[in-house]
Design a protein that fits this description.
Length: about 325
């Protein structure tokens, strides 16, 4: 492959590749170690067969540029990248405890657990949005468990960088996963922003409570039509695949329906507002001490972890003072 100037700084770490963890159309992921890092990482190598495709290479490099700007407990950590034996690569946090998609195969989550996870996801999204990054592919398979049981957002391969002069996708191209795509993504609206991620978050919260996406169909066209035209469904009126009625407080049902609003301006102001609503209701419902206990992983998920400290959800209790604006929106929602 021809040498080219990278738009990101290569890491100084030297990686020794170990077992292969996964493979895709554009790259292969390996477990790796480095004398410069205290624990193993995941290294993604660009497949040589696609290294001549400028669009794929640009997307691969853009993901590294994006990841270098993001440093948050619930976003996969980046350890740099460069070239390894002529192949483009980057190193990232090793997340080998399964995904939220794996967990949901066993059934829905209780609403307090969903609210706790929602706090984490919304916090990660707000951090990304603050840096001009729209994820555009929020879904259960892109949320991974770390060793402490926290959810970590990964795969920024189709993220939009609002600070870049051009998008990685061509104008008019639809990107995302059809079960979680906002109406503006489906229509390839050039003005897409963080409100699209909020719509996907609504789909995700619905699925965590019911173990199925809010809109289903035999084809992607049928699902897209519902995203575009169907009334946002009520979680409280839904049943799980096992025929069990979902337990969900009215305020959470209403929040999800607001997130699923067809028009971006009808959704919550930002991800911080959503985080504030979820956190405040946990505190109001259970009190601070009990709310902290409720943010531990459910028994099914904790059973999949190795022996060690009990997994717990990271919640920024000290950040409440910084959420006054968001909580004001929460008060209007309840009113």
């Amino acid at each position: 492959m021809s040498q080219q100037k990278l738009r990101f700084l290569p890491t100084k770490a030297t990686f020794e590749l170990g077992e292969q963890l996964g493979t895709g159309t554009v790259g292969v992921v390996y477990k790796a170690t480095s004398p410069d890092l205290p624990e193993p990482v995941a290294v993604k190598l660009l497949n040589p067969n696609v290294s001549g495709d400028k669009n794929i290479v640009d997307r691969f490099e853009r993901e590294i540029v994006v990841m270098e700007r993001l440093k948050h407990p619930h976003i996969v950590r980046n350890y740099g990248g460069g070239q390894m034996d002529g192949q483009l690569f980057y190193a990232m946090q090793l997340l080998d405890r399964g995904s939220l998609k794996d967990r949901l195969r066993r059934g829905p989550l209780a609403w307090p657990q969903v609210a706790a996870y929602g706090v984490q996801i919304a916090s990660a999204l707000q951090h990304a949005h603050n840096h001009g990054i729209v994820h555009r592919d929020l879904k259960p398979s892109n949320l991974f468990y770390d060793r402490e049981g926290n959810l970590v957002l990964g795969d920024f391969g189709i993220a939009r960088d609002l600070h870049a002069q051009a998008d990685i996708t061509e104008h008019g191209m639809t990107v995302g996963t059809f079960s979680y795509m906002s109406p503006e993504q489906i229509t390839a609206d050039a003005r897409i922003d963080g409100k699209a991620d909020l719509y996907s978050l609504g789909c995700l919260l619905f699925e965590m409570l019911t173990a199925r996406p809010p809109y289903q169909g035999a084809t992607f066209a049928q699902v897209w039509d519902q995203h575009m035209h169907a009334e946002p469904p009520s979680v409280r009126a839904a049943q799980t695949e096992a025929g069990v009625r979902v337990t969900c407080p009215e305020w959470l049902d209403e929040l999800i329906r607001k997130l699923l609003a067809k028009k971006p301006h009808e959704r919550p102001f930002n991800a911080r507002a959503v985080e504030g609503v979820l956190l405040q209701h946990l505190l109001d419902e259970f009190g601070e001490e009990e709310a902290k206990k409720l943010t531990k992983l459910d028994a099914l998920q904790s059973a999949t972890f190795d022996e060690g400290p009990k997994p717990r959800i990271w919640v920024v209790w000290a950040a409440l003072a910084a959420m006054l604006a968001a909580l004001a929106w929460a008060a209007s929602l309840n009113g």
